[in-house]
Amino acid sequence: MGKLTIVGLGPGNADLLTLGAVKAMQETSCLLLRTGRHPTVAELEGLGLSFLTYDEVYETESSFEAVYQTITVDVLRRAETADVVYAVPGSPVVAERTVQMLCEQAPAWNISVEVLPGMSFVEILCVRLGLDPINGLTVLDAADLERVCCGALPTGLVVTQVYNRQVASDVKLTLMEHYGDVYPVELVNHLGLADESVRSIPLCELDRQQDIDHLTSIYVPSLQSRTEVQPFEVDALTEVMAVLRSPEGCVWDRQQDHRSLRRYLLEETYEVLEAIEKDDMELLCEELGDLLLQVVFHARIAEENGRFSMQEVIDGVVDKMVRRHPHVFGEITVDDAAEVVRNWERIKREEKNRGGVLAGVPREFPALLKACKLQGKAAKVGFDWPDVAPVWGKVDEELQELREAASEAAREDELGDALFAMVNLARFLQVEPETALLKACLKFERRFGFIEKQLQEKGVSWEQSSLTELDALWNAAKALE
User: What is the average pLDDT score of the chain?
Assistant: First the structure.
């Protein structure tokens, strides 16, 4: 019966080798190393030890699983006739696929296996990143990641054996499905060595790093720890935007300017409003991210032109919020929310110094929003109806004038007056007209979609359906709501 002893070479520095591992390697006549590409190998040579490595297997096999199986079979074959010591980087029991396979297959070869404890890079990683494994830590080989990782993990994740940029690319694509493109990860290189490096990067940039080698791993914080512990930051997003706008980035992103992006800013704003109306928090989170991207996009363009930076955008709005809330950050006291609004408007006028009461309403505002803003500004200086009763009368008056309009120009003019009066009514009823109209649009889409589905199920076209039949389906959709 043969014997196989498995030892670890430690995380890198020869000082971290255990005495038991050194003794076992000195006493054997057959020392096998999974790889000779490890910093402690020079120490072994200095001790006068002779050994064989399996580095050539990595060049001849088509997959890591095939590499590991080839190594496993050769080690067991040698252990049939001699006491063999098999040494692996780090600890034998941390992310070492060949050790797992040897322990599983050795009984069939009638070979006993002894695994000596060793120190892994995980201990150093925990020290460098301030992690306590008691809070949960998952360690996976990069080759196993796609097979094992089926979602964002509740624990922190360490991915080892990120040998090269191709492996890094595979890891990136797998993790982005669960964590998102710009999720921050820690790139860990050469832990325990003089050139040790630990730095935070967006996940999408993982395979662009130039220093990836056989001593590279990554740490992915758990989503829970990001929510509860990590401070809020936009660095990852601004860095991605900088890459997209760089000469090596995206040709479309490089061509954009403030004016060309206007439509996208407006579209993203309305998509946020729709998510709020649907009360879909997952969608709202996504749409707020898209809207934030537009802010970062504009800030990046401005920074490239020497105008302002994203930090100035943030600093500016922070300063504004502090100035306009003297009852929170200053010595002023207020009695109610109405006084807060009055103070806000007074401070805003002093800051802007734009002139007239109606100044400051952007020309590009959508008409519905512009009507709300103009009426609100006029009301703040007392130009307003005393209560809602005459507003109802004004709406009736404008609708009657619309009915009596005889020309196209007159109808357009009177329709505008009627809509303006309806906005005034919405203000008195404390209803946001944009939200109300959006809700009506969504309602129409739902009911129309119901009709369309019913016609498809019956195999009937729109042309084959009478208005009475369509109206009945509309009422059915309405009844379901």
Answer: 87
